[in-house]
Structures are given as structure tokens and as C-alpha cells.
Write a structure and sequence with these properties.
- The structure is a single chain.
- This protein has 19 helices and 18 strands.
- It is an alpha/beta fold.
- The radius of gyration is 21 Å and the shape is globular.
Length: about 425
């Protein structure tokens, strides 16, 4: 089967394309621009990738080898309902779907049990921890993960595996396509107001997801928030359990919470002692774009919701005390409007804050694009004293170098992807 992945350079589609390649499918794909993920896929054997997404280009690919299935990122029909590639496939009667339908095919054909990690924040780190733990235990595992790992590929299909570990995203209601063998809920807040206009709509989706899950591991606060009733398949953990910080020595309280959930989830599957699982998790090496060090004292982090930003800042202060400098690139202008009130005091405790233009994608055109100056004006008077609007230019390079020379910890909050702060930092600051 020839599967064409549109948006193959994205963190959701790219790993799935790698899984499909390893599972024996013929894989090709396209993206709007070249980026590091495409380079990664090419190095791992997925070489039939095209930059540009035109009608004529996909027609030529189809003429060379007929496309059986067109898999696209959720953003495609939202940003461009009449996208040329999508239009061509409809004209030709080619099967089209989002990634969830194709994942379900793999689960069914390969007889894999889905271990799904869902939640408003912490999904990628928790998924990576689960993959790490299975690997440390010597358990064959298949998975797809939206970040690069030091201990494996972003996506992997193992013919000997019984489980498929997957980061199940709630955006566009994607996670409701699955019926997991076991789910981990990392924490529920409220996000994606373009999909879930109210907090109750968001919570309802998670209630549906849990109803579809054979087993689940979740926090007491979320269990209460959703108004759930106990079932035999749910393991409810207390986020205030004193053993979490005593048993785990990973930097960052949010990381210790994630690891605690993973240990209990894998215990449910394997029956191995929790203490043994925690020992392995204490050696977890981290994941790219999650408090990832680019050069000494310069870090990049994907955190983009206020609770996740708070968690990353807690980790930064745990490492550097009062010497924390932040470069903030908001992920989506729409989200900045949504989180206005939560931004007010978010950066009160940092030493210096630079705000650069937000990373624009899947935007509501009716909303004013908030400039760095606009975002600064939303902050508390205390935060505004140490905040500067900035651009990705030589002035910012010089300021970051000055902070690094003064032994400050500089933390960039970035969307990642082509043209983002993350790519800019890696270009100008190389180990």
C-alpha cells in the first residue's frame, strides 16, 4: 500500500510516517517547507519527500506510483479546506483521512494494544517516559512520539511488540477515534477553544475518551473535575502523595508527576514492583524540546499552556534560582487571546523576559494579531519592569550571549518547526 503523508515534517505526522515505513508500507509525503524533521526522516529511510504542496506535484507522484491513502494533518482542512493535494485526491477517489484512522489500521492489522497518553499538557514527556521504561525492561514496543529521543527513533514499529504507545492529542477531537487498552491522563485544564468553545465541552470529550478506555490512570483532581464514578478499570492517584518527590529524583516537579503516573501504568500492565520501575525512571534522559539544553545554560522548551509554562519555570528556578531569563514565543495568536488573563502574573518571578512575535498557525482571522508590545501590556506592572519586546535578530543574540556570560539560565519557550524561535536558537547558538 502506498501511503502519502501531507505535512510530513510535522511532529504528529512525521513519526507516524516512520512507523508506516518500518511496518512495510510504501511511504511518500510533502510539506510546505524543509525543516529538521524532514532531514531526520530522510536519514531514517523515508526519502520520497517533496517540499511544496501543489496539485500538479501530487499528480506526478500518483502517476509514478498510485497513491492508495492520503493521510493529512488536522490543520490542513482547517487552514485550507480546498488544499490542492486534498482536492486532487478527492478528484481521483483516493482514500483520505486524518492520522487517527490510519493508526487504527495499524493497530488492527498488527494486533497491537494501544497505550494512549492524553491530557492538556505533559503528553510528550510522559509518552517518552513510557517508551523509555518499556525499553529498559526489554519489552518490545511500537510507538509514535512527537519529539526526538536520545534512546530511540521518533517512531518505531517492532514486529515482536504487543503494545503501541501513542500521544493521543485532543485537538480536533483526534483522541476520540481510539479505544485504548490503557490510557494515562496527564492533567486536564482547558485548551483549543476553537474546537471546544466551553470548558464543559472540553471536559465532556475527556469523559468520552475515558469511557472508551479499557483501563486508565489519572489524578484525583481530574477524576473529581470530570465528575466520574469509580470503575474497576480506573487507577486514581493523588498528586499530593508525598512519595512522589521522595522516590523520584528527576529535576522538575512536573517531570516527577509524569514519571509517577508512568510507573503505575506500566505496573498495571507488567505486574512489576513500583520501586523497580521508579529506579529505571530516575535514569530517564529527557526528550528534545522539553527543557532541552542547546548549549550550557541555554534551554528550549515547547511549553505553551500556562500550567506547562509554570512547570517549566519551576524546573528552571530549581536549577538556577533567581537567575532565570525567558524568551517567549507564543504558540498561536488565537491561544494568546484565550490565555490573556493567565499571562498577567506568569512571568513575575523571572529576572528578564523577552517577548518575540508569536508563531502563527491555525489562526482565527477575526482576531487582532497581538504584537510583542501588546503582550507586554497584558502583564502585571511588576513583570513589565523586566520585560522587553524583541525580534529574532542580532540584538537578541547579543542580549542572550550577555546573559549566558553572566551565568544566567536562558529558557526559550517556542513552538518549534520552521521559522520558530527554537530553530533560530539552534542556528545562532551551537555546541
Amino acid at each position: 500500500m502506498h501511503v502519502f503523508f501531507s505535512g510530513i515534517g510535522g511532529s504528529g505526522i512525521g513519526p507516524l510516517a516512520l512507523v508506516a515505513h518500518q511496518a512495510g508500507f510504501t511511504v511518500s509525503g510533502s510539506d510546505k517547507q524543509h525543516n529538521n524533521y524532514i532531514g531526520y526522516l530522510t536519514q531514517h529511510g523515508v526519502t520520497d519527500i517533496y517540499v511544496g504542496q501543489t496539485y500538479d506535484q501530487i499528480a506526478a507522484i500518483h502517476a509514478k506510483q498510485p497513491i492508495d491513502w492520503f493521510v493529512y494533518t488536522s490543520a490542513l482542512p482547517i487552514e485550507q479546506p480546498d488544499a490542492p493535494e486534498l482536492r486532487f485526491c478527492r478528484d481521483q477517489g483516493i482514500r483520505t483521512s486524518k492520522r487517527d484512522e490510519f493508526i487504527n489500521l495499524i493497530l488492527t492489522e498488527k494486533q497491537l494494544k494501544l497505550v494512549a497518553i492524553a491530557g492538556t499538557h505533559g503528553k510528550t514527556t510522559t509518552t517518552a517516559m513510557a517508551v523509555w521504561l518499556f525499553k529498559q525492561l526489554g519489552v518490545p514496543i511500537s510507538y509514535a512520539l512527537g519529539a526526538k529521543l536520545s534512546f530511540g527513533d521518533m517512531g518505531q514499529f517492532d514486529t515482536q511488540s504487543e503494545y503501541f504507545v501513542y500521544e493521543a492529542d485532543e485537538f480536533d477531537r483526534n483522541f476520540l477515534a481510539f479505544q485504548p487498552y490503557l490510557s494515562i491522563i496527564t492533567g486536564i485544564d482547558w485548551d483549543h477553544p476553537d474546537i471546544y468553545p466551553t470548558r464543559d465541552a472540553y471536559n465532556t470529550a475527556f469523559r468520552e475518551f475515558l469511557q472508551q478506555s479499557e483501563q486508565a490512570v489519572l489524578w484525583q483532581a481530574d477524576f473529581t473535575r470530570l465528575g466520574l464514578s469509580e470503575t474497576g478499570g480506573q487507577l486514581i492517584l493523588s498528586e499530593k502523595d508525598w512519595r512522589i518527590d521522595q522516590s523520584l529524583h528527576l529535576p522538575g516537579h512536573v517531570n516527577r508527576l509524569d514519571a509517577w503516573q508512568v510507573a503505575h501504568a506500566v505496573h498495571q500492565i507488567s505486574g512489576l514492583p513500583i520501586e523497580q520501575l521508579l529506579e529505571h525512571l530516575n535514569r530517564f534522559p529527557g526528550v528534545s524540546r522539553r527543557f532541552e539544553q542547546i548549549v550550557p545554560n541555554l534551554y528550549s522548551d515547547y511549553a505553551h499552556t500556562p500550567p506547562k509554562i509554570e512547570g517549566a519555570l519551576q524546573l528552571a528556578h530549581e536549577v538556577a534560582g533567581d537567575h532565570v531569563v525567558v524568551v517567549y514565543e507564543g504558540l498561536h495568536n488565537t491561544r494568546q487571546h484565550f490565555i490573556k488573563e493567565q499571562l498577567v502574573h506568569l512571568f513575575d518571578a523571572v529576572k528578564q523576559l523577552y517577548i518575540v512575535p508569536s508563531y502563527l498557525a491555525r489562526e482565527d482571522p477575526s482576531l487582532q494579531v497581538l504584537s510583542p508590545q501588546d503582550l507586554r501590556g497584558l502583564l502585571s506592572p511588576e513583570a513589565q519592569k523586566h520585560t522587553e519586546p524583541a525580534q529574532l535578530d542580532e540584538t537578541l543574540v547579543a542580549n542572550i550571549r550577555k546573559h549566558l556570560d553572566n551565568d544566567d539560565l536562558v529558557l526559550g519557550f517556542s513552538a518549534g518547526g520552521g521559522g520558530s524561535l527554537d530553530e533560530w536558537l539552534r542556528k545562532h547558538f551551537k555546541a
